Amino acid sequence: MSSQPGSHEDMSEEKFPERTSGHEGTVAVTDGPFADPGLPPHEPRRQDIDEQAAKRSERTVALLFTISMLATVGFIASYVALPIDKIVYIFPFGHVSALNFALGLTLGLALFCIGAGAVHWARTLMSDEEMPQERHPIEAEPEVKAQVLADFRQGAKESQFGRRKLIRNTMFGALAMVPLSGLVLLRDLGPLPEDKLRHTAWRKGLELMNMNTNQPLRPEDIQVGSLTFAQPQGFSEDDPNYQTELAKAALMLVRLHPQDIKDKRELDWSHDGIVAFSKICTHVGCPISLYEQQTHHVLCPCHQSTFDLSDGGRVIFGPAGHALPQLQIGVNAQGNLEALGDFTEPVGPSFWERG
Question: Using CA atoms, how far apart are residues 43 and 156, in angstroms rounded to an integer?
Fold first, then answer.
């Protein structure tokens, strides 16, 4: 049977182009029926033959890295300077938070300029010559390892990293400054390192104000078996830090028969059987509000920590690990209850016991 032109039998090996090593601009032949077209001839870029063009590309990359550094500085400045509640109108977004917009814009610009600078550097200054390499076994022979190291050194040389000092230095500056954005955000992890948590708004001479009526409390206002909540004189719900300060200064007062008070210091710090303890549980900081008249115990509703107000506010049940702090009180010339100082220990959860 005769074969037709172009049939499979007609495709003899001698009709294929000769085998080549696969260098660029040549045609290579594989073991299959399809020829490998190889790589097109390498065409040099303008920067490869014109040093002035290379210098311009270098300055462009350095400019992008410099803009990234300035944007990082802008991020930090915006975080520190802009108030969190400031709202501005920005077209086409409408009314947005000035702080969030500034942080997003500056951080995005800083990251974009680093990426754009790296891409422009690679496309205009680093070598773009393609170098094909035959596939090799997965395991690396000593010769392969040596070749990899040689290729790495060659790539480092062709990147002109050592020669283009302006790019190198500005890139280092941009990469070094971007992490500062994350470090600044650590400020929101909590209050600045001071002793703020160890003190409250109570001071000597401040009157005890009824939290419901905001009127001064007098000894006759508090009856045996009652539970009264108080706050320092001068507190106002309009104050920006009202909730924060009240969370530390909230006070509860009960009146006991003096003979029922077991702790000597508690008796000395009381006035005619009226004792004042912090309202904040020493477990996780919940407000205490449940009082048992017969046992003089108060119960935290969150995790059932129980404190004995007739025995120095000590813990008798539950996960709390610290007694309720007591506030020393007295009576001023007007006959109103007043504080004789601040709490002598931090209120709330026992963070100080953990170092």
Answer: 21
